[in-house]
Amino acid sequence: MMTVDVVIIGGGAAGLAASIESGKSGLNTLVIERNNEPGKKILQTGNGRCNISHVDIKSSDYSRYNNASHREKFVEKLFKNVNQREIVDFFENIGIYMIPETGKTGQDVYLYPESFTALSVRNALVNASSEAGCIHATGTFVKNLYKKNGLFYIECEHNNEKQVYKSRNVILSPGGKAAPKSGTDGNFYDICKKFNHGISKLYPSLVGLNTDDEHMELLGGCRTYSEISLLCKGKKVAEEIGEVQFTKNGLSGIPVFQLSAYGAELLNNNRPGDVKIITDFLPHHTKDELYSIVEKWYKIFGSRKLKDFFGGILHSKIVLFTSRKLSMAADKSVSKVDKNRLFNFIDYVKSYEFNITGSAGFEIAQVTSGGVKLSEIDPETCESKIVENLYFAGEIMDVDGPCGGYNLHFAWSSGIAAGRSVH
User: Fold this and answer.
1) What does pTM read for this prediction?
2) Contact (CB, 8 A) for 418 and 382
3) Would you call 369 exposed, middle or buried from its count of C-beta atoms within 10 A (0-12, 13-18, 19+)?
4) Buried/exposed code over 283-295 (b: 16+ C-beta within 10 A; e: otherwise)
5) For every residue of the chain, which 3-state class applies, written as one string?
6) What residues does 204 pair with on adjacent strands?
7) How far apart are the first and last CA of the chain?
8) Please, which pLDDT band fits residue 399 given cuts at 50, 70 and 90?
9) 243: CB partners within 8 A, 6+ apart
10) How many CB atoms lie within 10 A of CB 85?
11) Burial class of 36 by CB neighbour count within 10 A (0 to 12, 13 to 18, 19+)
């Protein structure tokens, strides 16, 4: 039975950051990772480029929707303890320099490694962890965790053999329930409950939303810049703008991802048919501007088929989808179409309503919304207020942010805080 100062359960973003800080302080640190290699999920971030952080991180970004003010207060205290400059320094000290990249909307500036590869970030973290003296036990599944006489006992299985470790401190960074193929299936929530920690309701976040709308196969594969509004019982509760992607089952893309956890929560708490997404396929134009365009084009391009008439401002799949909805022949000459029907076409694409039936689920979600209740965790050290020397880092906690480096930033911050606080 091996005894160490610190056991970190989960060798992902938060766990690796925690191990570096713990190891640097001279503590004998063991990182237990379920996968055969650490940092597997890091490799998937930022489409393989790893969006490490965001230039303008604010605690309020973690409570944009569903009145999650408790998250904002927790994150604010954490970020005062581990600020953004410290995150930049942390990465520079392990050999990663960041470079800013402005997003498509021009409103966001993301921080990426200069290599623009997630592999370089993962490798730097693993190397730094090893250089700090940490031991890595990969391919090891934690089956049970308990505390006795001031020590934690971690019962594991590796290659069908049972292993037990003892430690004064444990940092739980096993991830949440999202993307189980990366080794995060939510099994640690039950273990947290054994330590009398409460778990808030879990929802898939940063994932698509499904609809039962007919003819979605006509939109499948379409990407278009749109403004979307999330409605519940007819009231707009959130809105986003950006590139929306359509599948045969529903809506996806970053604007939808940002709303997905809130949408899943609304679906859980309301009746079928209460949750909608209104899509403006042409957010850069008012209806009156588009009516004027129709008037002008009707005179000039009247001989064109309907599918070509709107081709200069709309994706062809949206034209075909809307034509089917309005029972208009896409191959028909516009001159043979009543002008009022063209105005009706504009009304549709400016405010099309999708009935939302569900989330695309944890299987393909990027993060988990919900987790260990924040009221039970010290925001400056990430130590449990219930169990001494038990710490949390990353997605296991009830914190999730939008796309753009926010979730990784929280992972680094909480991991560093926990790694510095163990003793």
Assistant:
1) 0.94
2) yes
3) buried
4) eeeeeeebbebbe
5) CEEEEEEEECCCHHHHHHHHHHHHCCCCEEEECCCCCCCCHHHHHHHHCCCCEECCCCHHHHHCCCCCHHHHHHHHHHHHHCCHHHHHHHHHHCCCCEEEEECCCCCCEEEEECCCCHHHHHHHHHHHHHHCCCEEECCEEEEEEEEECCEEEEEEEECCEEEEEEEEEEEECCCCCCCHHHCCCCCHHHHHHHCCCCECCCEEECCCEEECCCCHHHCCCCEEEEEEEEEECCEEEEEEEEEEEECCCEEECHHHHHHHHHHHHHHHHCCCCCEEEEEECCCCCCHHHHHHHHHHHHHHCCCCEHHHHCCCCCCHHHHHHHHHHCCCCCCCEHHHCCHHHHHHHHHHHHCEEEEEEEECCCCCCCEEECCECHHHECCCCCEECCCCCEEECHHHECCCCCCCCHHHHHHHHHHHHHHHHCC
6) 368
7) 21
8) very high
9) 104, 223, 224, 225, 226, 253, 254, 255
10) 8
11) exposed
> Cα torsion at 173, 406, 72, 255 (round to 10°)?
-120
The answer to whether 117 and 52 have CB atoms below 8 angstroms apart is no
Amino acid of residue 208: G
> Distances in Å between the alpha carbon of 309 and those of 318, 325, 327, 337?
12, 17, 16, 11
Residue 117 pLDDT exceeds 90: yes
Angstrom distance (rounded) from CA 307 to CA 332: 8
How much is the mean pLDDT over the chain?
Answer: 95
Question: What does the block give as tokens for 377?
Answer: 């965790």
Quickly state the pLDDT bin for 196 (edges 50, 70, 90): very high
Six-digit token string for 246: 């359509």
